[in-house]
Amino acid sequence: MRYYLPDEDKLFKKIQKIPIEHLKKEEQLNKLSLEEAKKWFRYKDGKLYYKKSPGNKKIGDEVGYIRQISKYQNHPYLVTTLKRKFYPVGKIIFLLIHGYYPKHLIYIDGNRLNNNIENLTCCSYSIINYKLRPIKNNTNLKGIYYCKFRNRYKVRFNVNYKTYNIGSYKDIETAKRVYNIIAKRVYGRSGYLND
Question: Can you give the pLDDT at residue 133?
Fold first, then answer.
C-alpha cells in the first residue's frame, strides 16, 4: 500500500466517491399544523411564548420544560404538551419559521436547549446518527484511528451505513485536516470537525 501526504488534487480524487449528504426537507405528517402553531405560539429571540392560554399557563409565558431522552443518554431537550401530545419546542419553532414540521432536526452547536432558529437545521437520520454517535477509538477523534502495526493514523468516514477508508498518514495533524475536508464536503455546516 502506498502512503503519501495528501495534496488537494489527490485527496479530491479519493473523496469524489463519497456521496454528499443533502439536508432533506422531510416533513412529518399527522403532526402539528402551521395554522394551529400560529394560533398557540409565537417565537421571539430564540424562545417560544404562548399566544393563547392552555389552562395552567398565562399568555406570554415561556413554553417548554426539560425532558431527558432516556436515563442512558444525556441529551436533554425542551418539550411542551398540547392536546395530550408531546412536541419538541425546537420543531415548533422550525415550523413557525419555515412552514413545515420537520421529521428530523439537528442542533448545530450540539446544545439541545439552544432553540435559536440559526441553531436549528432540518436533516436526515444519517446526519443525526453521525452527530450523536460517541467517539470510541484510541485517538479520541472522530474518524481517526491509530494503527500500531503500521505506526500510522487511519482516516475512515461513514455515510449512509457505508464505511470509506480514505488512507493512512504519518502525523495526526494531516489526518485531522483530511477528515475535516471530508466532513465539510459531505455534511456542510452540520459536519463534526476535529480541532
Answer: 66
